[in-house]
Amino acid sequence: MDLIVLDGSYGEGGGQIVRTAVGLSAYLGVPCRVERIRRGRPNPGLRAQHVAGIKALLKICRGEAEGLRVGSESLTFRPGPLRGGTFEVDVGTAGAIGLVLQTLLLPASRVPARLRLLIRGGTDVAWAPTIGYVERVLLPLLRRMGYRGRVELKRRGYYPKGGGEVLFEAEGGRLRGLEVERPGEVLRVEGISHAAKALAARRVAERQREAVLATLRKEGINAEIRVRYEDTPSPGSGVDLWAICKGSVMGANALGERGKRAEEVGREAAESLLRQLSSGAALDEWMADQIVPFLAVAEGPSAVSLPHPTGHLETNLWVVRHFPVPRELSLLNEEGRWILTAK
C-alpha cells in the first residue's frame, strides 16, 4: 500500500499528529510518514515521550521506523503484525505516560494475545492526560465500545524527575460504535487529592480536597474525594475528579506547582468539572479528540455530543481522514449543540 504522508505542522501542529498517525498505521497495517513535525513549536521535532511511545509501538507491531530520534522533524513508520507479550517502556524523567498511552491504546485493541506494558515516566504532568483521567474517564468510555484494557498506578511521578510507574494491560477485541448525545443525571462525583509525602506536614492534599468540596457544594453537588500521599522522586500534587452520569462520564483535574496554593488547585479542578457538567454535552472538552480514532474504526455508527470544537479535535479529524478507515467522521452543529458522528 502507498505511503500516507502528513504535514506535522498542520492545525495545532503538536505531537498529537504523530501519535494518532502511527497508532492508526499500526492498527490498519498501513505505512505513513509525518514531515515538518511540530515545526511551529519553540522546540520542534520529536520529544522524548514521542520517541518512547513509538519505540513501544514498534515492540508490539514488529515494525520499522526512520528518523526516530529526539529533535527529528521527519518520521517514516512501517508497521508489521501486531502481537501480545510483556514489555517495559521508559519515557525518561517526567515524560508523560498519558501521551505514550495515546500512541498505544488503539493498536492494543487488536493484539492477538494479552499485552502487558510497564511504563515509567510522569503520571501527572502539565499538558497531558493524567493517569487518573485515563483510568477513570477515558478507559470507562472505551469499554462501552468493547475495549478490553486497564491501567494500574504502581507509583506516582511528578515533574521534573518523574519516576512514576503504570501497568497497562490489554486484549484484542471488536470495537462497537458509541452513541451518547446526553450525559443524563449525575449519579455521583468522585476524585482523588494526591500529593508527595514531603508535603504532608503542610496538609496539601487535605486542603485541596476541602477546596474541591466547598466549590462543589455551592452548586449543590456532594462528592467523595479521597486523600492520598505517596513517595515520589519530586514533590508535587494534584486533583483528579470524575462525574459518573447516567449516560456518560466526564473528568477534570488540576496540578500543583511552586507558588500555587493548595486551595487554588482544588478550586481550579472543581470549577473545571462544573464547566463540563454545565455544558450539557456527553463528553468533556478533552475527550472528543482522544476518542476520534476509535470512532473511526468501530464496527457500528457513533454519535457523541461535545461542549465545543477544539484545535486538537479539528487536527485529529484531519489526520484520521488521511487513512482508510471504515467510518466517515463529521462535526455538526445542531441547534447550538455540537455532535460528532461516525457513519
Number of helices: 8
Could you give the distance between the termini? 24 Å
In terms of quaternary structure, the protein is single chain
Main pleated sheet: 4 strands, mixed
Tally of extended strands?
16
Q: What's the average pLDDT?
A: 96
The secondary structure category is alpha/beta
User: Major sheet: order of its strands?
Assistant: 1-2-4-3
Assigned CATH class of the largest domain? Alpha Beta
Q: What amount of the residues lies in strands?
A: 25-35%
Global geometry: globular
Order of helices and strands: EHEHEEEHEHEEEEHEEEHHEHEE
Total individual domains: 2
The CATH topology name of the largest domain reads UDP-n-acetylglucosamine1-carboxyvinyl-transferase, Chain
CATH-scheme architecture of the largest domain: Alpha-beta prism
Supply the CATH superfamily name of the largest domain: RNA 3'-terminal phosphate cyclase domain
Uncertain stretches? none
Residues in helix, %: 25-40%
Radius of gyration, CA atoms, in whole angstroms = 19 Å
Could you characterize the architecture of this molecule?
This protein is of the alpha/beta class and 343 residues long. The protein folds into two domains: 4-176 and 293-342, UDP-n-acetylglucosamine1-carboxyvinyl-transferase, Chain (Alpha-beta prism), CATH 3.65.10; 186-278, Dihydrodipicolinate Reductase, domain 2 (2-Layer Sandwich), CATH 3.30.360. 30% of the residues lie in helices and 29% in strands. The protein has helices spanning 16-28, 48-61, 97-108, 131-143, 204-217, 262-278, 287-297, 311-320, and strands spanning 4-7, 32-35, 64-66, 74-78, 85-90, 115-121, 148-155, 164-171, 179-180, 186-196, 223-230, 237-245, 249-255, 302-306, 329-334, 337-342. The strands form four sheets. It has a four-stranded mixed beta sheet, with helices on one face. Helix 3 links the parallel strand 5 and strand 6 (115-121). Helix 1 (16-28) runs parallel beside helix 3 (97-108), helix 2 runs parallel beside helix 3 (97-108) and helix 5 (204-217) packs parallel to helix 6. The longest helix has 17 residues, at 262-278. It is globular, with a radius of gyration of 19 Å. 51% of the residues are buried. The model has no long low-confidence stretch (mean pLDDT 96).
